[in-house]
Amino acid sequence: MKYLACGNIMSDIVIDANGVPGPLHMGGPAFFALTALRLWTKDCKLVCKTGADYDETYGSWMDLHGLSRESIRVEADNCTVHVLKYRPDGLFDWESMYGYEALGYLITPPQQIDEACEDDTKGFYFANGLDTVIWRKIDEFKTRRGVKMMWEFGGKAPDGTPETSLKMMKNVIHIADMWSINSAEAEFLFGIPRDKDEDIINEIMKLPVEMTLYRVGKRGAYAVTPSTAVFCESIDITESVDPTGCGNSSTGAAMWAHLEGYDPEMVVSIANVTAGYNAAQLGPIPHITDEIMKDAFEIASQKALKLKEGK
Amino acid sequence: MEKYLCCGNIMSDSVIKNNIASPLSMGGPGFFALTGVRIFEKSCTLVTRTGANYVDDYGKWLDRHSISHRGVDVNSEKVTYGHIVFRDKNNYTADYPMGVELVGYQMTHPEDIEKHADENTKGIYLFHYPDITVWKLMGAAARKKRFKIMWEIMPFLSADDLPKVQICCKNVDMFSINSKEASILYSISEEREEQIINELMKLPVEMTLYRVGNRGAYVITKDEVVYCKKINPKRAVDPTGCGNTSTGAAMWAHTEGYESAMVLAMANVAAGYNAAQYGAIPEITDDLMKKAYALAEKHCRRIKRRGRYTFK
């Protein structure tokens, strides 16, 4: 497969700001990224460790979309479940139903991604922290395989400080080819208020990656390269219902678009169209038909054209 | 490969009693179990996922005891560590400053054990959840590689886990549980020991090590129950890891074919040596091995002589 979505899959129960819980929905960074890839290409697969009960939900979704399960390893009884509690400010707190130890047990190690890569693999999405041993292993197989990586930033340095986290990020970011970060993470990392987009983007532009997707929440996102930054406001396909997973899905889509050679206008449009489809319901996009794929491409193309025209 | 594999996390511990913290010591179920086996057997090794800095202390311990590092998979930067806060002799809570998620990331998977087991492997120790998928994978590996499994169950269970524990036990040969865990699992108060033992006797395993804290332990088989109070070769300082250490020793003794009284005596001798300092036994010399064996033999004779400790 050309594109891999790697990392945890985890179901979510969303509790809204009024304390009202919703039903259980499929999710997790890698699964949201997979749905995003699948919106644009059929040549993609999921790489993860999970619980046997994934079959009833995630498995059915993959069958519906003709996706291979060859790189899914069932290593426990239960898929991770998270309870996301939204706060009035739109941010959320989360806790793990089966415990964080069980979550850690199912984290995708670099060697699993290595084993999942094939001769035609171009890129993989991976939400990852700052551990240098993990990065060394990624570097080793990436170089050997000649594949590119989209790193969705996650985690802090062991001491929890922005200074050490920034230093550690700078030590490893050259291993990734594409990067994705949101405004809250950027504020923490660079020590710049999140409303100062320009200052943050200036810092991002100095990083040794080909492209960064800088996500600014409800406002939209930027595709940042060492020489340019293109902003695109968020795109609602239908009424926006739930933002959970929009960051992961837009990141997966941006990886695909960048590696397919699209320009930053199209990359950011594709990312935002994907987030728009993802936000249209609780959980991931339920059924991606060929018609939806065509529609999505059309909407993104029109948006990219407008961005180029400065509209 | 070695005859015995001790599998599971290594993690350093600082024990906090009366608000006083001990220095960080080597520990973790996989490592404590290794020390429990190494007191009686040199053909043993560690199978673990851990941090690169393990070489600073655990690595040196392995070298001092001529134990290979082959089973150590460095998958992250740091060995995890925990603060173990004892509220009383048998009750503690554990806090992991580097995050419990990392503890999970460093947990041993059945594939690690299968990879390292070979035709020489006779027995393995693993500390894990009552997870049917994990134990099915372990059972399949054991049948393929022909080794026996000792499962030490992870704490913090609920009564709802009992059906899963019963299913998981079908894939293991030996089982280890302490009185607090058993009480929760069977919803029987810890004081009603005979009732708990009756339940444990129904498990589909060859042998269970039932640990009753400061009071000692039982070895339970289908046919007999043997009790031995704790054994202190030296003054007891810290009980952290005694359950893991005694379980490792019991796994070795049972797999080697020792009778229940000797299995139990060895388990309690190993726990006694472990309790003699904070952290794991620092140096296991040939002399200590001989002493431990002799002490176990002595207690084995006592256990057998004192019929009141044995009942059917």
Task: For the largest sheet of chain A, list the strands in their spatial order.
Answer: 5-4-1-8-9-10-11-12-13
Q: What does the average pLDDT of chain A come to? A: 95
Secondary structural class of chain B: alpha/beta
Q: What's the CATH H-level homologous superfamily of chain A?
A: Ribokinase
Order of helices and strands of chain A: EEEHEHEEEHHEHEHEHHEEEHHH
Written overview of the protein:
- The complex is a heterodimer of chains A (311) and B (312).
- With 311 residues, chain A is an alpha/beta fold.
- Chain A has one domain (3-308): 3-Layer(aba) Sandwich (UDP-N-acetylmuramoyl-L-alanine:D-glutamate ligase), CATH 3.40.1190.
- Chain A is built from eleven helices and 13 strands.
- Chain B has a single domain (4-311), classed as Ribokinase (UDP-N-acetylmuramoyl-L-alanine:D-glutamate ligase), CATH 3.40.1190.20.
- In chain B, helix 1 (29-38) crosses helix 10, helix 5 (132-145) runs parallel beside helix 6 (162-169) and helix 9 (242-255) packs antiparallel against helix 10.
- Chain A binds chain B through residues 51-52, 74-77, 99-107, 109, 131-134, 137, 158, and chain B through 51-52, 74-78, 98-107, 109-110, 129, 131-134, 137, 164.
